Amino acid sequence: MSLLDAFNTLKQSGFDAKKDKDYNPYKEIPDGEYLVSLDGVTHNAKNDRDFLMISFMVVQGEYEGQKESVFPSLATKKANGDPMPNSVIARGIAEIQLIGEAVGAPIPDSCFAHDNETDAYEAIVPVLSQAKNKVLKLTKKTTPNKRNPDYPYKNYEFEKAEQPRALDIEGENDPFKDSKNNVEVNGSDFPF
């Protein structure tokens, strides 16, 4: 896509910089089951807290091309410095392991054998990154957040999905098998 194409897309969307406060073409996907690909895994930091971000892209259906990111936490302390309950940390570990299994990149136990989440995230990123573009099923379910109703809880389930087959273009399926090895092309061969 060129810069001009992107500009035209923006204008066609009805965006007006004089009236609008922001532009975000990525609307959150609603609850449901989706076929997604693992789009990326990053270890980031914000406001002295680091986190793992695992991104997925919907690969078929009405929301094709939309992204969804999950942020499994391995933080051992709350923002106020109190210890994080083991059940919360265990949930983050389980979510990471479920994603790893669903994309065929099991997370070794050694990734969690660290004294802090920073080192664990650094160990997990290369393992999951090997499965980038692998396809899996993602089911999203939101539940109400009584303390902050504008931000419902997002719950995810991850399952293995059949991977697309690579095209076999060797041998009999090779569309160029009958062509000559040394083909010469000159200017008169082009239609322009």
Q: Which structural traits does this protein have?
A:
192 residues, 5-stranded antiparallel sheet
Concise description?
This protein has 192 residues and is of the alpha+beta class. It has helices spanning 3-12, 86-102, 117-129, and strands spanning 32-46, 49-58, 67-70, 135-143, 153-160.
Low-confidence stretches: none
Q: Could you give a short account of the major beta sheet?
A: 5 strands, antiparallel
Walk across the major sheet and give the strand order. 3-2-1-4-5
Helical amount? 10-25%
Overall structural domain count: 1
The counted number of beta strands is 5
Ends apart, CA distance between termini: 23 Å
Output the structural class: alpha+beta
Q: What amount of the residues lies in strands? A: 15-25%
* Overall 3D form: extended
Biased composition (Basic and acidic residues): 170-181
Region (Disordered): 170-192
Organism: Lactobacillus colini
Protein name: Single-stranded DNA-binding protein
